[in-house]
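Summary of Year 1 activities. Much of the first year was spent building the evaluation harness for sequence design. The harness presents a backbone, in tokenized form, and records the residue chosen at every position. We chose the following record to illustrate the format because it has been used consistently in internal testing since the harness was completed.
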């Protein structure tokens, strides 16, 4: 179970445990040999707050010598201050609004986590630290690279789907039950149903991937959304982690971004069951949050319910950066709403609380979010149908869709546990 602590303020989640629990028993579909996999060593080894190497070196140097008169008299170059733009001002005001709640909730959750042995006390000597070297090394894991995205683009060309039409097209979608094969065929625009009771190791695209129990996934480009609709399922929860437009991502080309208009066209109304819980990850940019709350939600017939926050901490319970840092905040935001199919629907549930905080040690891979399945379960009906959009990993019991839906299932992100060290 990935939820270590649950309180009226929120939760402490062990992201690594949430992953590893699904792969305690893995086997290839053409073999009876069973293997245990765990997350690659270092991926969650966040022991100190995030610092650039130059900042860390200065901190170590400062701790190694005492302040003397010459050092205290040294003049420091003054940085030129610029006036914040309107977006920065809005972000600052929002930060001031939520800051007291975030600090109080995080302190309480960390204290409860320490009682459970989830966090340890930080070392007294900064010189014994290594600035998260193993985590930064693990974060460079390549995995499948860009082959999944490129395959989806080829799938678009093969299907001839250069259209925004979201009507049903039965010729687009094949369905494969993995009980019948161990090597995946052309998996693009294809619904893959993995109904096994245990995790499986499957081969495709020249690599090996781990599939958790009872998962279902569809890998396709955004322009082939018809394929998603062919699942013929209505979902009780839809989690969306949009590939927001971002200057850094545009420069590095780390994933395909979508415009605001592309997000408008998501067929939420066709996918959501009455009362469906819709959860959207947003950055701390107020423009994005207003877009979701004031425009996308009404367009999708979703009524706003709550705002939650994910606070990222080290293994010692320290925030990964200063709470008031002007450059980077140690938290991200979730906006929750509920789909209302018609005006005659019953009043929306009030069971989803507002202002909740999720605390966890983040993965060293940029933008990899913690699992929400264990947290959201208590707000869903028994046997709920669950969907994640723009997913880059799979969850047991969930349907996942995206053009890199298998990315973090690649065996490069895991390691085998040998019998003698289990």
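For this record, the design step produced the sequence shown next.
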């Amino acid at each position: 179970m990935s939820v270590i602590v649950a309180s009226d303020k929120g939760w402490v989640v062990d992201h690594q445990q949430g992953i590893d629990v699904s792969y305690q028993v893995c086997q290839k579909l053409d073999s009876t040999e069973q293997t245990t996999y765990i997350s690659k060593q270092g991926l969650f080894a966040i022991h100190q707050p995030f610092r650039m190497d130059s900042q860390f070196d200065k901190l170590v140097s400062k701790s190694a010598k005492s302040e003397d008169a010459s050092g205290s008299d040294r003049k420091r170059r003054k940085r030129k201050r610029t006036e914040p733009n309107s977006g920065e001002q809005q972000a600052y005001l929002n930060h001031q609004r939520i800051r007291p709640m975030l600090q109080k909730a995080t302190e309480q959750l960390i204290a409860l986590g320490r009682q459970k042995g989830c966090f340890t006390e930080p070392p007294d000597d900064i010189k014994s630290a290594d600035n998260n070297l193993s985590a930064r090394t693990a974060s460079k894991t390549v995995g499948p690279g860009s082959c999944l995205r490129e395959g989806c683009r080829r799938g678009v060309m093969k299907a001839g789907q250069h259209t925004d039409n979201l009507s049903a097209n039965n010729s687009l979608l094949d369905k494969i039950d993995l009980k019948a094969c161990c090597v995946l065929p052309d998996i693009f625009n294809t619904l893959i149903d993995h109904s096994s009771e245990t995790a499986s190791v499957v081969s495709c695209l020249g690599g090996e991937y781990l599939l958790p129990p009872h998962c279902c996934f569809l890998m396709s480009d955004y322009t082939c959304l018809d394929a998603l609709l062919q699942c013929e399922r209505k979902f009780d929860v839809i989690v969306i982690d949009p590939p927001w437009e971002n200057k850094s991502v545009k420069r590095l080309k780390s994933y395909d971004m979508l415009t605001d208009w592309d997000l408008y066209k998501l067929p939420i109304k066709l996918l959501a069951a009455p009362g469906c819980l819709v959860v959207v990850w947003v950055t701390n940019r107020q423009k994005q949050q207003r877009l979701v709350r004031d425009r996308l939600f009404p367009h999708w017939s979703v009524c706003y319910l709550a705002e939650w926050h994910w606070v990222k901490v080290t293994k010692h319970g320290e925030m990964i950066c200063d709470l008031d840092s002007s450059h980077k905040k140690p938290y991200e935001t979730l906006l929750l709403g509920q789909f209302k199919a018609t005006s005659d629907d019953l009043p929306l549930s009030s069971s989803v609380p507002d202002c909740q905080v999720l605390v966890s040690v983040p993965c060293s891979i940029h933008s990899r979010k913690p699992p929400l399945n264990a947290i959201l379960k208590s707000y869903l009906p028994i046997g709920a149908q669950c969907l994640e959009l723009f997913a880059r990993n799979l969850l047991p019991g969930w349907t996942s869709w995206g053009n890199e839906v298998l990315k973090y299932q690649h065996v490069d992100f895991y390691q085998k546990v040998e019998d003698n060290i289990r």
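Residues 66-74, 161-173 have pLDDT under 50 and may be disordered. Quantitative recovery figures across the full test set are reported in Table 2.
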